[in-house]
Specification:
This protein is an alpha+beta fold. It has a single domain, classed as 4-Layer Sandwich (Glutamine Phosphoribosylpyrophosphate, subunit 1, domain 1). Helix content is 26%, strand content 16%. It contains nine helices and eleven strands. It has helices at residues 10-15, 42-54, 66-86, 97-101, 103-110, 130-135, 240-252, 258-263, 284-292, and strands at residues 24-28, 31-35, 145-150, 156-161, 220-224, 227-233, 267-268, 276-278, 297-299, 307-312, 315-319. The strands form three sheets. The protein has a six-stranded antiparallel beta sheet with strand order 1-2-5-6-10-11. The chain has a three-stranded mixed beta sheet with strand order 7-8-9, with helices on one face. The chain is globular and about 60 Å long. It starts with 9 loop residues before the first helix and ends in a 12-residue tail after the last strand. The model is unreliable at 133-142 (pLDDT under 50). The protein binds 6-diazenyl-5-OXO-L-norleucine. The site of 6-diazenyl-5-OXO-L-norleucine has 12 residues, from loops.
Amino acid sequence: MAAHGGLITLADLKNYKVIERRPLQGDYKGYHVITAPPPSAGGIGILQMMDMLARTNYQANGADSVKAIHYEAEVMRRFYADRSEYLGDPAFYNVPVKPLLSPGYIARRVSSIDPLHATPSEMVGPGLPKAYEASLRWQETNQTTHYNVVDKYGNAVAVTYTLNGSFGNGITVPGLGFLLNNEMDDFVAKPGAPNMFGMVGGDANAIEPGKRPVSSMTPTIITKNGKLFMVVGAPGGSRITTGVLQVILDVLDFGMNPQDAVDLPRFHQQWKPDYLYLENGFSEQVRAALQRMGYVLQPIPSVARVEAIVDKNGLLEGGTESKLHGKVAGY
Ligand code: DON
């Protein structure tokens, strides 16, 4: 670090502590979802978006229907607006996990979706009541990889770890062989300034000594009747959470196997910029219908490279981004 003019000292590294956190948990149509807690935004995102969708019949016309894309994009927009304001390192900022996941709030939030039109992001803000925001305690004192493993007993792990950009900051520690990350970009450098994924935010995720940045990482385990059902996660920056959401919905609500779910073209909405990002593979009719509803479409090569395992009563099925780096293997 010293050789490259970096700020991190040996004392900083000595003082760094790994924190083992309790996962967030929630329920969706008889499934139990176990997922990443703050400072990742991913778990709150998955639980909020799934609970909003459970209050619609977004799935009525199929996974790639205009209706499904519209409702999923609108819940994404609402979650990313909340994320911009309320997500930060819980050691520095009182992340309102309970209010963000409370059924009353979710019901109110989803009721603002217009069935026929995209809501402009300018009309959607972070949604908690102002009275609640005022009571928040502001503590002024103070290249990503995902893999899933399941063993024959049904023990499961979902692991996402990140260097942030490809090869992190591009510097390998001499003699030690590991890359340094460029994770500072997951903080908000200043209000309104987009990071490398176009994400904006505020004080909750501002840079402070000893603070951890908000992440999109969404390693998730889903159980049904107390037994493993699905393990899933992805790299992909701000698009991790929406990519993971879509693969979960494709399996749980649209009955796909994990490979078909991973292969289905994905889309992404992150509040700001107010675009609906589409991978290749959406029909002209669907694109035209979305444009008529008010979406501004933007092509994107990939909405997260999702990896998944589904456990069908002991039979394990894998889904992977094999056209990139992914792989499914059994031993
Ligand atoms: O934790 C995060 O949200 C980011 N550091 C993830 C970056 C990432 O996935 C880049 N890879 N495609």
